[in-house]
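INTERNAL AUDIT FORM
Audit reference: QA-55
Scope: verify that the stored structure record matches its stored sequence.
Auditor: D.O.
Record contents follow.
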Amino acid sequence: MQSCAHALNKCTKPPALRSAASITGQPLGRWRVPTQLRQYASVSAAELQFGQPLHETHPHLLKAGEITPGITALEYAQRRSKLAAKLPKNTIAVLAASEIKYRSGAVFYEFHQDSNFFYLTGFNEPEAVAVIGRNVAGDDHTFHLFVREKDAKAEQWDGVRSGTRAALDVFNADETGDINQISSLLTPIVKEASKIYTDLISKPRNKSIFARLLYDQSPKEEGLAKVLKSNNNLPLKDVINEVRNLKSDAEIANMRKAGQASGRAYTDAMRQAWMKERDLATYLDYQFRTRGCDSSAYIPVVAGGQNASIIHYTRNDHLLKDGQMVLVDAGGEYGGYITDITRTWPISGTFTAAQKDLYNAVLRTQRQCISLCRANANVSLDGLHNVAETALKDQLTQLGFDMSGNALEALIPHHLGHYIGLDVHDTPGQSRKTKLQPRQCVTIEPGLYIPNTETYPAHFRGMGIRIEDSVCVQEEHPLVLTTEAVKEVDDIEALRN
């Protein structure tokens, strides 16, 4: 017999892993005390069922004590403690899980959890609400997790749910309840709080103009918004960005695992001759997964020839032709953490002289900027962008480009880099002007995109080159998370020749 081992002792000492079989959910103010065994304490681990993989059901995917790959129950508890410590006394933070998105009718898209909700709970199901509250004294906090209750009929169609019992025993909530009762469950909590930190009642983003005008909501969202709108609300985004900003050892390890697997997939792809963008995109996705990633982190860019000048080219439906280069922006995801890589290489396997010159200009710039991804360089992402612009302008001048006036703006349309983590553009809204700190993870991705016009030297026209790596900032030197993806000219050509 093996019982669930994710829950944490509620004590004044640092929380330690406990057996879920030894803890009941009887509330006693902030605390719960063991009074009886859980009903499934005598059930074999092989018979346990939850709405996501756990060590007891998927020991090939998770280690003991982990809620999600690489991240333990203890670390999730520490994250909630850090967030609570940043809240004023007698306030709450309210977050909601993502909703299932439908392609048409009953056909749904693959579920992807809200990143902030996932970061604080590890709970990977839809229709859930988390409330983290700091008490009046300011010396403690409470974690409520409202989820879908177990329902045999619904689970036969849509898959297993973890249920409210697992919310307590596995995900370590202090209190739980059925999400269908969210309005009545949340109302007394909201009334007792002096302020509410949430991003749930802001206007919807990433929807069509018609959806934004209508501000469509599901019945649960409407009920939740009604409860929250009646109180003193403040945005949560900036507070949680502070918590997510610096990555833990476990987070960096997950990003390194994704970067290593993805980098090796790139290098293997460069060994082969490709005739279609789509075939190359499919190969990379397959390689990411078979090398240990859970999925691709985002829709890939596989852009041959002049398609490379379109920054977010994702059609991936053209032929690849000898004499041109292909720009590939893709990466895998592991345990929710992403990697972001771009490589550009000649479709034939050998650079032409002009391709090599322009490529090396981008590569030298990238090397220079990566070398500055350390805290003691005292530089921000905006500062690194300025370094990249200066370096590229000098090298383009040497290659015969007229760089007078604002010529650079047409050739470098995007920023040098962005923060990464659970999201490809992590901690949205976080300033690029602040100095880089140890444990921040960023991309360094200089690029040049030469329009096919007479303004530019003929042998460079129509070329698009970007080279990108995921990098973790350290005190004295950078940690490149994606080093397995080759990028030196000699190394790329040696793979085919």
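Auditor finding: record pair retrieved intact. The chain is about 30% helix and 15% strand.
Action required: none
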